[in-house]
Amino acid sequence: MAHFARINDQNIVEEVIVVSNDDAPGDFPESEPIGQTFIASIGLSGTWLQTSYNSNFRGAYAGIGMEYDPDTDTFIAPEAPE
């Protein structure tokens, strides 16, 4: 299964979905644009980025509330309040 995170205009993860490997075939990064096309075809709008459940790429598995850093191409957990 492939996992995709929807990020908002502030690069915050708002949703994470699972996409069948049939709809996002291959390995990252080649699978990402194919999965994005599939996601758009089922009517989901927004910016969707592939994330790795095993943290094999983009630093960590994206979770709701995490930030995407485009400079490092990683998902970052929010800092805990003190």
Describe the 3D structure.
The model has no long low-confidence stretch (mean pLDDT 96). This protein has one helix spanning 31-41; strands spanning 2-7, 13-19, 47-51, 67-69, 74-76. The protein is an alpha+beta fold. The N and C termini lie far apart (37 Å). Strand 4 (67-69) and strand 5 form a beta hairpin. A three-stranded antiparallel beta sheet has the order 2-1-3, covered by helices on one side. It has one helix and five strands; from the N terminus they run ββαβββ. It is globular and about 45 Å long. The longest helix is centred in the middle third of the chain and has 11 residues, at 31-41.
Summarize the structure.
By secondary structure, the chain is an alpha+beta fold. The chain has one helix at residues 31-41; strands spanning 2-7, 13-19, 47-51, 67-69, 74-76. It is 13% helix and 29% strand.
Number of strands: 5
Order of helices and strands: EEHEEE
Give the strand order, joined by hyphens, for the main sheet: 2-1-3
Strand content: 25-35%
The computed structural class is: alpha+beta
Describe the sheet with the most strands: 3 strands, antiparallel
Low-confidence stretches: none
Whole-number mean pLDDT: 96
- Report the helical percentage: 10-25%
Number of helices: 1
Terminus-to-terminus distance: 37 Å
Counting structural domains, the number is 1
What would the principal axes of the Cα set say about the shape?
globular
Radius of gyration: 12 Å
